[in-house]
Design brief:
mainly beta
Length: 157
């Protein structure tokens, strides 16, 4: 319960700064709470930290860390090349993902394409995921699709 209260206080404290930072097309930090249901792990309640940084010309870097309150930790790294158009930014990105649970380690590698505009964004891609279990068994998922869709209430500057 203390972890939950600490996470909620941290989110409330940082929410205004994170929301202000997310108005920009690049270079933002976000702290989020996420809840839902996953068929593999069951119920989900997690705190997430995301960092996005774009260099002046063509290279961007995204990093995300998620911790759920059942001792599952996920780390995601997405280096990307981008090109700016008048209507938004087109990206080509690589994906590296590691998850740690009590008895399972998951690794995923892949890549995708994205478009980030003034009012919306979309990312789609493919990844290959492998789970390593404590009893030395391995499960491979060779074909996976990821997607992110979103709209902004406030336009980017």
């Amino acid at each position: 319960m203390k972890k939950l209260i600490l996470a909620l206080l941290l989110v409330c404290f940082c929410a205004s700064a994170a929301m202000a930072q997310e108005r920009y097309l690049e270079n933002y930090t976000a702290i989020k709470l996420r809840g839902g249901y996953n068929s593999f792990t069951g119920g989900i309640f997690a705190a997430t930290f995301n960092f996005d940084y774009a260099c002046d010309e063509y290279f961007a870097f995204r990093f995300g860390e998620e911790y759920d309150f059942e001792d599952l930790s996920n780390t995601e790294i997405r280096p990307a090349y981008f090109y700016d158009f008048d209507f938004g930014r087109f990206t080509v990105e690589a994906l590296g993902y590691v998850s740690f649970d009590k008895d399972v380690i998951g690794l995923a590698f892949g890549g995708g394409l994205g478009l980030n505009t003034k009012y919306a964004w979309v990312n789609v891609g493919y990844y290959h995921r492998t789970f390593y279990f404590e009893d030395d068994s391995i499960v491979k998922e060779p074909v996976n699709i990821y997607y992110e869709l979103g709209v902004r209430c406030l336009p980017t500057i």
